[in-house]
Amino acid sequence: MNEQTADLAALQDLIDRSYAAAGPHLLAIHTPERRLSAEQVCERLTGMRLLALATVSAAGHPVVGPVDGIFFHGAFHFGSAPNSARARHIAARPWVSATYLPAEELAITVHGRAEPVDVSAGEFREALLDIYVPRYGESWADMLSDGAIYWRIDAERMFTFSMPA
User: Fold this and answer.
1) What's the Cα-to-Cα distance from 19 to each of 4, 10, 63, 161, rounded to whole Å?
2) How many separate domains does the chain show?
């Protein structure tokens, strides 16, 4: 877990604000006992977690695709190639939604703005290397240095759902 006390407090505030503004249908499903706390979210989101990420096309259409999600300091991060359709969408229209949905029993959804993250140095780069180099080898570090781009989702809303089988 990479989260500090301030990260956990900000994340819990985001979750609380999100549910305070939620509609009756969502609240009927996401009852308080089915919601995860900030700490529980962080515990569930270690390492890489596959996300369904939605961007917006030039025609205003939603486009969803899988991305590697890294939950770091209380926010989802994801990467892509600079020449990808995803990168073009985000450059023009940075609003995104992402959901981690490994099974019917767990869902974590965020809606917000994708903000570029510098991966040339620092703590986030080290976290990426710790995750990917053991899996793909040193060549992955070269790819990261050769122009991969990453974003952090600055979430305006986060909804968590957990219902053990």
Assistant:
1) 23, 14, 26, 11
2) 1
Give the integer Cα–Cα distance in Å for 30 and 16.
12
pTM of the model: 0.95
Question: Do 64 and 109 meet the contact criterion of CB atoms below 8 Å apart?
Answer: no
Q: Is the separation of the CB atoms in 52 and 98 below 8 Å?
A: yes
d(CA 118, CA 141): 14
Distance CA 113, CA 116 (A): 10
pLDDT at 10: 97
Place of tokens 């990420």: 53
Q: Is the pLDDT of residue 91 over 70?
A: yes
Contact 52, 107 (CB under 8 A): no
Eight-state DSSP code of residue 164 = -
Question: What's the rounded Cα separation, in Å, for the pair 113 and 102?
Answer: 23
Q: What CATH number is associated with residue 77?
A: 2.30.110.10
Tokens encoding 33: 């006992």
Domain that holds residue 145: 5-162
57 pLDDT exceeds 80? yes
